[in-house]
Write a structure and sequence with these properties.
48% helix; 7 strands; single chain; 227 residues; alpha/beta
Length: 227
């Protein structure tokens, strides 16, 4: 299966470099380019790529706003953020906006290719533990999302008691193996619970589950469960 990619970066040389890397890979195809977040969202709506490789900092409409628009209008398209710093306020905000992960701009070509494949398959390209560190660092200082104040997520009540336990473990940055050991379950059972949690909460991936847990104050900075 060919993975269709749209590259969004305000620097033409960067777009050319990414295009060359991706065109050298048999299962990846660049179907479009964009110079800012607005054009990326327009291109995603028109071309329906599997993955948008999105620079987070661009003049005009940045990658965060571009991500919001893509998630809203083209939900099947995954967004992979490119950033200069590994723990970056912009990267964190992009995760809250719906990105499925982020990479450093100087990532080796083979890691870039594997990250795109992972995102296209539905995985997240940043571990829940790194997401938790980002949340711990920036959650208190960032402004709330636009719109009405967030109330209790209406779908949380649909989770079983065990699924709630797994969600809390996810929010603490635990892997499937660690969750299995802590809850005395098999890894296969944990994976099934995670899949059901994402489906019931209408979430894109594990990273979004961690973000939701923080936004709903199920856990507090430091990865601790709410008292």
């Amino acid at each position: 299966m060919t993975i269709r990619v749209l590259v969004a970066d305000d620097q033409p040389l960067m777009r050319t470099g990414f295009r060359m890397i991706l065109h050298a890979t048999e299962d990846l195809k660049v179907v479009g380019e964009a110079s800012d977040g607005a054009k990326a969202a327009e291109g995603a709506a028109q071309l329906k790529p599997d993955v948008v490789l999105m620079d987070v900092r661009m003049p005009g409409t940045d990658g965060i706003e571009g991500t919001r628009r893509i998630v809203a209008s083209t939900p099947r398209t995954r967004v992979l953020i490119l950033t200069t710093f590994d723990v970056d306020e912009y990267a964190f905000t992009a995760l809250r906006a719906g990105a499925s992960g982020f990479l450093l701009k100087d990532v080796p070509p083979d890691q870039l290719v594997e990250a795109i494949r992972a995102v296209a398959s539905g995985d997240a390209v940043v571990s829940p533990r790194i997401t938790r560190e980002l949340l711990d660092r920036y959650a208190a200082s960032l402004p709330a999302e636009p719109g009405p104040p967030a109330g209790v997520h209406p779908l949380l009540a649909k989770l079983t008691e065990r699924e709630g336990e797994v969600l809390l473990a996810l929010a603490r940055g635990l892997s499937n193996a660690e969750i299995a050991a802590e809850l005395v379950l098999s890894e296969k059972t944990v994976k099934t619970h995670v899949t059901r949690i994402l489906g019931k909460l209408d979430l894109r991936d594990r990273v979004q589950a961690v973000v939701l847990a923080y936004e709903q104050a199920l856990v507090v900075p430091g990865g601790r469960e709410r008292p």
